[in-house]
């Protein structure tokens, strides 16, 4: 490698959802303009572009589900729909002049670390380029998971995943099977129920559902937020503070969630009068163990005469007949899968080859691990946004993304201080130490003790997705890069990493390049 001439950039950002666009804005604010944003689709938006199913909306309040540096006083509802969030991301792209950096329809096929040149060689569907640093912002909700169901290939009707909705297929008057009861399904069910002839919901595990207190934001409120921006900031701060106070119950005192369970059951009783149906819909695990869902229309839809709830997963398909694990058989015209995404086995990991010649997927074969949710051992100058153990169970992921952007910014400052031809590689000992602390804290959380199986857990039952603390704690942990957690690799001495030990601190709060050279 290193023989051919390709376009070379300082930074290659992968993905153009919240993480990728946020990284692009932050790079520009740091004075770095030599970067590209590689996006496999033909427009920005990430999961809010891909998920356009009926009823798609966010379950985090609008004013908290936006960048702090790009407040939106024009949110139309307290919980915004997909079209409004996607429009917001397009607005961010234009406001911060990101379009010249976009490389749309450039799917990343492979990324390989060049140990001689200390850079990444990136093969895309439109050609090859190289970059000093890669920021992977593909997100955990980008690749739909389709179950391997016997007989599915022989189904004569329509099949699609909620994240790949076929808007050309008319569901009116059709018999539809909805597979799954996650966040997408509880929005789809009430949206399509009035128009389909028959809707059969296949439910392996019932979710806990709380009312979604959504309303239009008045013109007066929007005017106030436009004229007095601090009012929007205060609104965001209040929403954030309430959720910070809730974290203790999820992470340290799960038994305190019993009252919330009673509220959820009351919400169900209000709409579901049939005791048998209520029994099917009542979870047997602690609320919060799986994602708590918000909807005021899901239960009323399930109570309608054209809806059947099968308390079992889909086992097989025989022609146009879908068969549940409990033996229930149903004739359908269409199957909609709301079966989630590849979260703990992200496909992008198979396309990243590190310094030792192995893929990130191979490095993570026993479970995802990263340093402060950002960097992985064996993959120099590679960072991820929304990495392992950065997910949240009760608040806005934008808060976590912005914390990781702080870390990325300081990472770039450190590389600049170290000078051209330098790279930072997370020490395996640092990665393991960080993850041991995270997993130790995870032991008493509701996600590990609540008695459920969720997409938060990997194949071995380890929680590699959720952050077991407050967003404030995470922001503090990612404020600066600690060079003692990294090996400094220099082009002049490529085969001999420079040990970063204690020394004076730079203006960003970590050891400077000069100090590192001195100890070396």
TrEMBL record:
InterPro entries of this UniProt entry? FAD-bind_Monooxygenase_sf (IPR051209), FAD/NAD-bd_sf (IPR036188), Flavin_mOase-like (IPR020946)
Q: Which residues form the signal peptide?
A: none
UniProt key word Oxidoreductase: yes
User: Region annotation Disordered: residue ranges?
Assistant: 494-520
> Keywords, A to Z?
FAD, Flavoprotein, Oxidoreductase
**Source organism's superkingdom?**
Bacteria
Pfam family for this entry, one: FMO-like
Spans of biased composition, class Low complexity? 499-511
Family to which this protein belongs: Belongs to the FAD-binding monooxygenase family.
Protein name from the UniProt record: NAD(P)/FAD-dependent oxidoreductase
Q: Which organism is it from?
A: Streptomyces peucetius
């Amino acid at each position: 490698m290193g023989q051919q001439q390709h376009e070379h950039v300082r930074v290659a950002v992968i993905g153009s959802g919240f993480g990728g666009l946020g990284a692009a804005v932050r790079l520009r604010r740091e004075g770095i303009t030599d970067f590209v944003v590689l996006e496999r689709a033909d427009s920005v938006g990430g999961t809010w572009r891909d998920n356009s199913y009926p009823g798609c909306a966010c379950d985090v309040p609008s004013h908290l589900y936006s960048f702090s540096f790009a407040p939106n006083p024009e949110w139309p509802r307290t919980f915004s729909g997909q079209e409004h969030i996607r429009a917001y991301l397009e607005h961010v792209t234009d406001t911060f002049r990101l379009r010249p950096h976009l490389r749309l329809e450039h799917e990343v096929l492979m990324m390989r670390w060049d140990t001689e040149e200390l850079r990444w060689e990136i093969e895309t569907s439109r050609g090859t380029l190289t970059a000093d640093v890669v920021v992977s912002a593909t997100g955990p909700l980008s690749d739909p998971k389709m179950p391997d169901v016997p007989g599915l290939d022989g189904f004569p009707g329509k099949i699609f995943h909620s994240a790949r909705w076929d808007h050309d297929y008319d569901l009116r008057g059709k018999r539809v099977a909805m597979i799954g009861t996650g966040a997408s399904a509880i929005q789809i069910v009430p949206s399509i129920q009035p128009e389909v002839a028959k809707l059969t919901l296949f439910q392996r595990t019932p979710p806990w559902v709380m009312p979604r207190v959504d309303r239009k934001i008045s013109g007066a409120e929007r005017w106030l937020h436009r004229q007095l921006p601090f009012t929007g900031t205060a609104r965001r701060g209040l929403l954030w503070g309430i959720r910070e106070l809730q974290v203790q119950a999820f992470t340290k005192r799960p038994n305190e969630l019993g009252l919330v369970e009673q509220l959820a059951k009351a919400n169900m009783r209000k709409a579901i009068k049939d005791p048998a149906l209520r029994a099917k819909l009542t979870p047997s695990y602690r609320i919060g163990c799986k994602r708590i869902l918000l909807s005021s229309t899901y239960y009323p839809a399930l109570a309608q005469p054209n809806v059947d709830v099968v308390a079992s997963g889909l086992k097989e398909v025989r022609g146009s007949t879908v068969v549940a694990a409990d033996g229930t058989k149903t004739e359908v015209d269409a199957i909609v899968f709301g079966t989630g995404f590849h979260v703990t086995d992200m496909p992008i990991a198979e396309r990243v080859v590190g310094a030792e010649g192995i893929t990130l997927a191979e490095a993570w074969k026993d479970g995802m691990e990263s340093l402060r949710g950002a960097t992985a051992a064996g993959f120099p100058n590679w960072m991820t946004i929304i990495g392992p153990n950065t997910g949240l169970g009760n608040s806005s992921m934008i808060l976590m993304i912005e914390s990781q952007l702080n870390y990325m910014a300081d990472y770039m400052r450190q590389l600049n201080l170290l000078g051209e031809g330098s790279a930072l590689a997370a020490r395996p000992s640092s990665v393991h130490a960080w993850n041991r602390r995270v997993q130790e804290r995870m032991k008493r959380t509701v996600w590990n003790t609540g008695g459920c199986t969720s997409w938060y857990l990997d194949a071995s039952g380890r929680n590699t997705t959720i952050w077991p603390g407050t967003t404030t704690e995470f922001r503090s942990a990612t404020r600066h890069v600690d060079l003692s957690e990294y090996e400094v690799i220099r082009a002049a001495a490529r085969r001999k990493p420079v040990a970063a030990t204690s020394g004076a601190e730079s203006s960003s709060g970590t050891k400077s390049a000069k100090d590192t050279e001195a100890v070396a």
